[in-house]
Amino acid sequence: MDRDRSSLRERHMEFLYFPGCTLNTKAQNLDEAGRGCAKVLGFELKELSNWTCCGATFPLAKDDIMALAPPARLLARAKEEGSTLTTLCSVCFNVIKRTNQLIKGDEEKREKINTFIEMNYQGDVQVLHYLEILKREVGFDTMKGALKRNLQGMKVAPFYGCMLLRPFEEMEFDDKEAPKIFEEFLDAINCEPVDFPYKIECCGAFQSVGAPEVAVECAYAILNSALRNGAEAVTTTCPLCQFNIDNMQREIHQRYNGFPGIPIIYFTQLLGVALGLPVETLEFHRNDVDPRPLLKKKGLL
Amino acid sequence: MKIEISRGKVHNAFAQKVEEISGQNLFACYQCGNCTAGCPVSFAMDLGPHQVIRYSLLGLEEEVLECNTFWMCASCLQCTSRCPKGLDIARIMEAIRLVILRRKERLDRLEVAELSDEFLERIPQIALISGFRKFTS
Ligand code: SF4
Ligand code: SF4
Ligand code: SF4
Ligand code: SF4
After folding, report:
1. How far is the centre of ligand 4, averaged over its atoms, from the C-alpha of B49 (Å)?
2. CATH number of the domain encompassing residue A229
3. Any residues with CB less than 8 A from the CB of A102 and at least 6 apart, and which?
4. Which chain A residue is nearest to residue B115, measuring alpha carbons?
5. Does A65 lie at the interface with B, CB-CB under 8 angstroms?
6. Ligand 1: distance of its center to the CA of A9 in Å?
7. Which residue of A23, A79, A194, A215 has the lowest C-beta tally within 10 Å?
8. What is the CATH number of domain B7-102?
9. Which residues belong to CATH 1.10.1060.10 in chain B?
10. Nearest CA to CA, how far is A84 from chain B (Å)?
11. Alpha-carbon gap, residue A203 to A223, rounded angstroms
12. Which of A6-15, A45-54, B109-118 has the lowest average pLDDT?
């Protein structure tokens, strides 16, 4: 274990970090825990200077170049400050990574975008999600060596949602129908990953604004599936997923009488618990269904 | 419903516009229904995504623009990832939204003024911003 820790320190890894607007406000629990864990694991998250919102949607119309400007601009700035850019929010990750792929592969659009943002960016920043940093750069084995609390026996359902994975060819994240990285992560922190058929389903995304009654049904299907498969908690990487399956449980309770409710915990919060971070720094008061009773029951608080 | 099929109808201006904005060839669709079967919100749609594609090619512009399918679509890309013909159906749904949102009447699907203060307090930026991107002109 000591050897692992010291080898981490020797490597001194530094990654540019794009928090995104939601992590700066409502999803501070995702952000703060992520920053705290990075410190313990010996890598530095250097916040990108001067960032803006990425737009929260990758434009699906072929002629919509305008919506590519914000993510392109922040990629171009990242290039000036480093070589690898990381995010915690799945949606930011999706928008930035897809934009990067497009700039790399489409010369005509690259020129248009560069002319518009008055920069010269070629698509050569590496974009990694925080989970990929843990797996590829830190290493799940090394992470195991740094654990301070034992989460053994805690049954957690990993909810991937859509944006980490799709489109599969561009995101290059994991298998499109049977991804494993989240399970490997849970294994590494001694949780018991719960396999459930809804792990790559959509939570309704922005329909929580457009058609909330529909988003509630999506969330219910996901949570019901996790519960049926024995989950005690669900973990997410995305503030939109989190909102839809955590906060919207209020509506689920109104519609479905016997729904027991289930805590939804950001993956960085779980990691923070496992790494022994002080619980106050993990901002559990921001989770709508309070995970602390479960953590207490497991002897972790 | 009686539908008259002609060459002109199949290559109608509406379908062409959808193809242009989405960059997808609607004729590639062979109506297997995979997209609709895997769609997490199809239960709330008037027509399945595969029907929307066929209706467009049949020149049923009004029926398509009046159905709620593309407004219900959550851009989750499940259909896109599973279409055996490689069609990006999520782009087709976006294109139809844009046919409406780009009209000069600016008929937005979502009105900020109609969202309650309590709801605005509650939702995270990410939901609002992506919602506005999808539902307003
Ligand atoms: S995707 Fe969301 S969290 Fe990320 S920057 Fe955009 S709006 Fe903010
Ligand atoms: S499940 Fe919903 S919020 Fe989560 S990534 Fe997918 S679209 Fe986004
Ligand atoms: S999955 Fe593809 S080919 Fe099948 S109906 Fe849908 S769009 Fe058509
Ligand atoms: S992208 Fe839209 S149409 Fe396709 S599966 Fe998702 S919600 Fe359904």
Report:
1. 8
2. 3.40.50.11810
3. A68, A109, A110, A123
4. A209
5. no
6. 31
7. A79
8. 1.10.1060.10
9. 7-102
10. 23
11. 10
12. A6-15
Q: Are residues A156 and A282 in the same domain?
A: yes
**CB within 8 Å of chain B, chain A residues 140-159:** none
Q: Which positions ≥6 away from B137 have C-beta within 8 Å?
A: B101, B102, B106, B107, B108
Residues A118 and A209 both lie in one domain:
no
Could you tell me which of B20, B10, B76, B14 has the C-alpha nearest to residue B49? B76
Angstroms from A166 CA to nearest CA on chain B = 6
State whether ipTM is beyond 0.90: yes
A85 plus A216 within the same structural domain: no
Write out chain A residues lying below 8 Å of B98, CB-based. Answer: 61
SS3 of chain B: the string is: CCCCCCHHHHCCHHHHHHHHHHCCCHHHCCCCCHHHHHCCCHHHCCCCHHHHHHHHHCCCHHHHHHCCHHHHCCCCCHHHHHCCCCCCHHHHHHHHHHHHHCCCCCCCCCCHHHCCHHHHHHCCHHHHHHHHHHHCC
A125-175 residue pLDDT tens: 999 999 999 999 999 999 999 999 999 999 999 999 999 999 999 999 999
- Rounded to the nearest whole angstrom, what is the distance from the C-alpha of residue A35 to the centroid of ligand 4? 34
**Which bound ligand lies closest to the C-alpha atom of A245?**
2
Asked whether residue A169 falls in the same domain as residue A121, the answer is: no
A105 shares its domain with A33: yes
Question: Does residue A2 lie within any of the structural domains?
Answer: no
